[in-house]
User: Fold these one by one.
Assistant:
Number 1:
Amino acid sequence: MMYRSEIRGRGGITAKVVEATASPKGKRITTLELKYPRFIHSELMTHRQFSRNASSSRAIPIENMMDQVERRHAEPIEWGKNQKGMQASTTLDGVQSGKAGRIWCMASCDALAAVDGLNELKVHKQLVNRLLEPFQFISVIVTATQWENFFNLRSHKDAQPEIKELADCMALAMRAPEYKEGSHHLPYLSSDERKYDYTEAASISAARCARVSYLTHDKKEPCELDDLILADRLLSSGHMSPFEHQATAMSVKHLIATSGKGYTHIKKDLSLWSGNFKGWVQFRQEL
């Protein structure tokens, strides 16, 4: 998979632009693939204008999760000194930071030992992997049309350093690509695969977005038939979030042709929305 841009930050944090599309009216939609410490995942999840899919502790084999943590465990990029309030205005000195890092590393080793013991007892991964979550990196796909609130809050001195680092990487990644003009936004599809009709192409894209849950979307050789089968299984079982990353540009012509299917609401400024997308009709809403 060729990415349009990739930014590597501190502490193993990365942001890649997978797809960047501008509608004929200039409305932008962007899909990013992110990697960051799982302990800040809740910070990203508070932003409801984001569509997202993430790697799952319930789906990834215990041995794979252990290997990931053993190779590089997630840890803070700054060791803030405790004080009142939510922000640390000062950091520990070099000696104290070194001690803090060693203690964190010892905690990850203890967690690995506990996981190994539970794995020998054949305890299911949906339970065992939870012990490693503070030390995991999580892979997340995010698609949105509105980013201002996120960057205002997270690219800010008061944000936790790790989420600020992530937001800064995302902002840099989004500045790099040229937004290609088009009427369809289809992450993870090659130019050859866009020959399919929109429903099929969007279903293939959705299946590849879903695979982030078990980390194979960028490792498995693409197969359109397998993707369509997976998309059908997701749809029939009601797993709809992977269908939120694909979209069609809003237009009067499209609105009339579809009789408004997928258009969900109008805001006070008279802007048309489709779920959490502005200016684009989300595939999930059409389904």
Number 2:
Amino acid sequence: MLAGLLLAFGAAATTGVASVLQAVAARQAGRGRAGRAGRAGCAADAGQIGRLVVSPLYIGGTALDGLGFLCIVAALRWLPLFLVQCAAASSIGVTALVGRRVLATRMPRRDLVALLALGTGLVLLAAGAKPEAATAVDRSAQWLLVIAAAPVIAGGAALARVKGARAGGALAAAAGLAFAGTGVASRILSNAHSVGDVLDAPATYALAAFGVGGMVFFAASLQRVPVTIATAALFGVETIAASAVGLLILGDSTRHGFKALTAIGFVITLGCALALALSEADAERSGLVAGPATGLAGVDG
């Protein structure tokens, strides 16, 4: 169990730093758009996202995300989904600490309190985890996971065409759903015994579809909201959604006597994640942030 926890928290460190690198890349892409204000809105947004995902900083962040993902996949061989997701979600704290230094971001005190409360909720969830292997999932059920990727990707694509901070929060949530799908697929694939089994499993296709969608939606959200807010929304939704599937379908369970504590952790985590994701508009009106993220200037306007 200790090796799994170390891998999960290693994923937290790498993805936390990755989020900051991606935010810096998004800021630079936003500035680049300011000089091309005369272009058509949707075409400009699409071009901006295209420039963002191929920029060196964003590619570096994506590489760290990939390393974190490998750590998560390895951890899932020993630990239940909701424990690994909770440990990985602590990257919100890494992002906040590094982001404040690199991006000079400022957060209202209530958001800092919510971030601390979010951490408390994650600790409660982790305390109730019971280490065990995932329940085997047959091929027909795995194909249902592939089908489930379609509405998530379609919804995220529709949100990407909407401007504004609220759309950015929703995009981050869509990315969270997509990455929850990658977590579920990874947990299913943790039962594979060979590379051939992995390549033959329908869950592998779901993993690819959810993974690409999640990266694109998160990139788009970073152009509309601060990195800490986007990351909180992403990991809040991802943790809740993936943990629920793990508990209900994949055979994950809590320690004896910890069900109530785990439920309290779920409520705290979800409530604080939503509060952080939706606070951007109030923060912008009060002048605590300068547009999206101390931000990615020019994206909304």
Number 3:
Amino acid sequence: MGHVEWVEFITVESVPTAGEIVHGSGGLQVPGGGGAVAAVQLQKLAGDVTFFTALGDDDLGRRAGQELRAMGVEVRAVARPESQRRAVTLVDADGERTITVIGERLAPSGDDDIGWSDLAGFDAVYVTAGDPSALQAARRAGTMVATSRILKELQEAKIRLDALVGSAHDRAERYLPRDLVPEPHVVVRTEGSQGGTWQIPGAAPRRFGPGPQPPQKGDTYGCGDSFAAALTFCLGRRDSLRTALAFASECGAAVSGAIGPYAGQLSL
């Protein structure tokens, strides 16, 4: 459950500084964003995924839905009158991605008629966007994982997550103990190629290692989203947390072996 951005990738030697002109090459345009990337990764792992989302009521929004369906995702989308949110991703020589987002994030709402009651029969759900009533509907699933980027909405929803996932390096995903009440069963903070930490309430953080680095270098776009999707998949099938983190790290690292979020994703 979450958001979609129409993403254009441009390869540059380095990200330009203020006033600088650089030359880039590109051509890859795909539906991206944390919700879309996670949905495709879950489809490759589970073989069956439903994506609750909102799309712009324009050509790009319709194209995003069509391309996600072509990748095997069942898309349940409400059309919003706003333009589809877009993003431009600069990929430098080191494979790091720098993203400029254009437009407001379009998120599903609990008021949307897209079959929320079906979630009671789902093994797991991963959430990147949604209003509090949508989050409450998502809690019907057997396992619920969410990104710490939507902390405000989670606070209003007052639900207990099985896992909260966020980047330790991204200020927008910062989480401190007791930011959510009730607290998540586990909080996972990723640190890119260094692995990351996991923490249960009242205990000190513990480290987990990175996944194996792929032989080819692509970019880091979608690594964290694929990590979170794989973690959700493993927790949904009742793997141990240690097993889930190891597999999620492998899935996250694999994405960096290709340009864009999908070519490097692992399939089960």
Number 4:
Amino acid sequence: MNKNSLAFLLTAAAVAIGANSDCAPFLPGHLAVLRTGDGLIDLHLKQAPVFVDQFDPKIFNPAPSLSVSIPTNGPSTLFFNSHAATEGLLSRSADRHLLAFAGYGGVNLLEKPGTPSLMDIQRGFCTVDAQGALHTYLYQAHVSSEKVNPRAAATDGTNNFWGAGNAGGTLYFNPTTGAGTLQFEPYQNSRAAKILGDTLYVTLNGPDGTAIDKPAGIYRFVDKSGAPLALPRQKDVQIDLVVPASVPYDKNVGFDMNADKTIAYMSDTVSGIQKYTKSESGWKLAYNFSIPQNIPADDNHAQGCFGLVVDFAGAAPVIYATTTEGYGGTVNSNRVVRIVDTNATAVVTTVAQCLSTNQAFRGIDFTPEASAAGSVKN
């Protein structure tokens, strides 16, 4: 693709972003979904505009009721690899006031075409508050000779960030200290990160675990003596397996747990969503939810899920997830799905559907809540 074509696509994308953006605040109790792609830029370019879309969790949404666009140029630019199968997870802060995700910044979108994880460009985190206000925090990748994918971000809402990724991407960062990032060693690879009950958890999938002789699953952090580190900020941490992922469900990514830590869910990019329950004998797989497909099997990328969040407020947990289906060997034209977990045969319904092969839903969480003082700025 020549420079004139790139310029045309970026101009068209800017128009589309302006048309889809809205300054209205997020609605409480709705879904926030991280979307890559505006329908114009080819996701195979690996750099595309990013949006946070709002959906009503109880109905099918033909379009988002609100879309917050992440800048494609300037100091707040942040994007992730729109073609990568591992990037683009979303989480809500421990205080519920912010959404956070990880990516690349410091350059304008498509300023340097190519695979972002191979480029010597900054990585970072972006937050979005209840009013749609954005803040981007960048740091220099600690190595420039390796493929470094920023996959996920978690924050407590007070300038402390924890990242999940590969090649040293499992890390702690506070942009106000000037100290740079702190990589947790030797735990180089992780998939998702989330703070639940003021404790940071991360997931390792099969390949991640094999590299360090650990099983796939949900982990917390501990010190060398085994004492829990709720929100770790030291280099020499250890990890402690909380919920093991049962074979063959080791393509796990997203996760959630109830407040009592007796029910957990994990998404698997190939198989769907798994429910785990805890008893006196430990954690056991309860059952797997397979995801009915809208794309013909011969054309389909995968039949699982990626981002995941669960509403535990009612009698039956309600699961929301983004699917991994798509054409051309990658995720696109995929969906947000909903499962009311009454039993193993619970129905899977569609909440939202991407209408283009140049769009993909990735991370998912609930919308940020406003603080008592109004808009929160991290």
